[in-house]
Amino acid sequence: MSKDKIKDAVYTRRYIYNFHFHLIWVTKYRHKTFTTDELSNEMKDILWQVAEDNEIVIEKMEVMPDHVHVLISFPPSKAPTSAIKALKGRSAFIFLRRHPEIRQSRYWGGHLWSPSYYMSTLGNMSKEVVEKYINDQKYNEMKKAPVSKPIKKHNFSVNNV
Questions:
Q1: Active site residue: 29, 118, 133, 139, which one?
Q2: 47-88 per-position pLDDT tens digit
């Protein structure tokens, strides 16, 4: 691996990673719950805390009246579904516990969020660039290898024996 630092990568003792996920999820039945700045900011604060508690970095976030957008990153030791479960599950639990009036009027079943979500990965290289990089590895390694002397070949023939 190159000694040059990879731009935007996170370096830990065990691994280096640089991946980001765009995650969107909606409220149950698309109820418009976060209609005031106070409620929207409260959900943002809850999500920041849940993320911090679960080794998730929120790079960008917006809480809309009936859905949430986040750009997140987390260590490769964490499964994407674990990150989603932490963000959605814990935030719903905390928010509905703080607002029993909202729970009773709209979310009497105890589910703030719809079970579905959208998630995509982001990268700074296209699939083609990575494929070319992988394909070029052997060639690049061979170029670095010291040139060895050719092995002398002896011509033996059956007739000479």
A1: 133
A2: 999 999 999 999 899 999 999 999 999 999 999 999 999 999
For 91-122, write each residue's pLDDT tens digit: 999 999 999 999 999 988 889 999 999 998 87
At residue 118, the 3 state secondary structure works out as strand
**Which tokens in the block code for residue 49?**
């805390």
Residue of 56, 90, 52 lying closest to 73 (CA atoms) = 56
Residue at 148: amino acid letter: S
For residue 101, give the H/E element and its range: helix 100-105
Q: What is the dihedral of CA 35, 36, 39, 41, to 10 degrees?
A: 120
**Residue 133 bears catalytic tag:** yes
Residue 51 CB burial class (10 angstroms; 0-12, 13-18, ≥19)? buried
Q: Which residues contact 160 (CB under 8 A, 6 or more apart)?
A: none
Who's near 87: CB < 8 A, 6+ residues apart? 23, 47, 50, 51, 54, 56, 70, 72
Q: Amino acid identity of 153?
A: K
Q: What are the tens digits of pLDDT across the range 124-160?
A: 666 677 678 767 876 776 677 666 555 555 555 555 5
